[in-house]
């Protein structure tokens, strides 16, 4: 048998180290070539590391949440045949005293890290569970069906400890720093979107096949661009250590986007150069790359103001957290139809609250309110958006 020392490979983007997200193996497990060993996390993505050889795990190095430098030993494997170990990759090997037959390949069951962790917690061997997901992947429901076949309700006093790692930890640290360092000034105003919704429907109904469907956000993006000359300090980033506010001519709009790995903010760059359809097209592109994990560094940095759409989940108001070092964030809420009095008559209008937060060190309350009122004027009379 031969000792195979598997080291953390270069995961790209100049990353010098990566965080251990979840182990798929433990000492004593038999793994086959290309079976998953561990998930490694960087600032931008989760990378599944697979085994280049078939062998028996002797030891794993590091726990979930630990950081491992590129080139450091992650897994020690006992590999059948000295020649196989020596040629499979550039690793250290120990020559066996005598030849031994190859281990029979054993397929690792397909399951998400959370499912594997729960199976370990309740003592269920995944090899005994029949998976109903794609390619036989074991789903949480499969685990429940195996562990509790009769679905009998049981009293539970258990507590699950979940270590916050990877992107989720980065988000937590950034939000904590933003709330600790920035005195937030929140402002909520009601917008009447009746005219804009009629325009949006008309544009969507008559759009060309190569034009994306318009949501509300492209209209807000156009309004943010139009207000920049009048409110230059809102489209800005504040370096509080140097005491310098950088007010930008370019409008780089961050779009708060929920992804399977947590909240990220891809950026629509140079929105001042885009028309309504261009904003919609670029908005769709950057949010899709954020969700599928293909967004590059350029797509995830450099925003000067952020939009966070809160409407799909409802809610009448929120207090969004500023995406530091920016100084403002805008959050459209849910659209609702309500009776209102206009010119002495009760009519049904389409209304929406806009929730916003401003850095009170930079933006005074009067200026914040003035900005939102001007934004409201543009959104309520959308023809103004197209007058240059």
Architecture overview:
With 388 residues, the protein is α+β, with helices and mostly antiparallel strands. It has two domains: 2-108, RNA polymerase II/Efflux pump adaptor protein, barrel-sandwich hybrid domain (OB fold (Dihydrolipoamide Acetyltransferase, E2P)), CATH 2.40.50.100; 167-386, 2-Layer Sandwich (Chloramphenicol Acetyltransferase), CATH 3.30.559. The protein is built from eight helices and 18 strands. It has helices at 82-88, 113-122, 140-147, 166-181, 194-205, 217-227, 276-292, 365-380, and strands at residues 2-7, 17-23, 30-31, 36-41, 46-50, 55-60, 67-69, 73-79, 184-192, 236-239, 244-247, 253-255, 257-259, 262-264, 267-268, 305-307, 328-342, 345-359. The strands form five sheets. Strands 9-18-17-16-12-15 form a six-stranded mixed β-sheet. The protein starts with a strand and ends in an 8-residue tail after the last helix.
């Amino acid at each position: 048998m031969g000792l195979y020392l598997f080291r953390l490979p270069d995961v790209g983007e100049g990353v010098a180290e990566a965080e251990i997200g979840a182990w798929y193996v433990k000492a004593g497990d038999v793994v086959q070539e290309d079976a998953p060993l561990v998930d490694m996390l960087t600032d931008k993505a989760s990378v599944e590391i697979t085994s280049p050889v078939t062998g028996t795990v002797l030891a794993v190095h590091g726990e979930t949440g630990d950081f491992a430098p590129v080139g450091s030993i992650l897994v020690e494997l006992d590999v059948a045949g000295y020649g196989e170990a020596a040629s499979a990759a550039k690793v250290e090997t120990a020559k066996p005293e005598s030849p031994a037959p190859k281990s029979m390949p054993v397929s690792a069951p397909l399951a998400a890290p959370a499912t594997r962790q729960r199976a370990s917690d309740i003592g269920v061997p995944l090899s005994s569970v029949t998976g109903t997901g794609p390619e036989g992947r074991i789903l949480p429901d499969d685990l429940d069906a195996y562990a509790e076949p009769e679905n009998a309700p049981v009293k539970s006093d258990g507590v699950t400890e979940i270590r916050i790692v990877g992107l989720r930890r980065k988000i937590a640290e950034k939000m904590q720093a933003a709330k600790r360092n920035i005195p937030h000034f929140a402002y909520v105003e009601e917008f009447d979107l009746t005219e804009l919704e009629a325009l949006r429907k008309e544009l969507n109904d008559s759009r060309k096949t190569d034009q994306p469907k318009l949501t509300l956000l492209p209209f807000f993006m156009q309004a943010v661009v139009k207000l920049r000359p009048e409110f230059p300090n809102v489209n800005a980033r504040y370096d509080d250590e140097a005491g310098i506010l950088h007010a930008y001519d370019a409008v780089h709009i961050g779009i708060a986007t929920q992804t399977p790995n947590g909240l990220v903010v891809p950026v629509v760059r140079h929105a001042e150069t885009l028309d309504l359809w261009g904003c919609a097209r670029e908005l769709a592109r950057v949010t899709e790359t954020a969700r599928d994990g293909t967004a590059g560094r350029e797509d995830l940095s450099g925003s000067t103001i952020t939009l966070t759409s809160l409407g799909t989940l409802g809610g009448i108001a929120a207090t969004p957290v500023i995406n530091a070092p920016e100084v403002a964030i805008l959050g459209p809420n849910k659209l609702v139809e309500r009776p209102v009095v206009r010119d002495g008559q009760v009519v049904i209008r389409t209304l929406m609250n806009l929730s916003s937060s401003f850095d009170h060190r930079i933006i005074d309350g009067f200026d914040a309110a003035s900005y939102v009122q001007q934004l409201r004027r543009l959104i309520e009379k959308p023809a103004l958006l197209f007058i240059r």
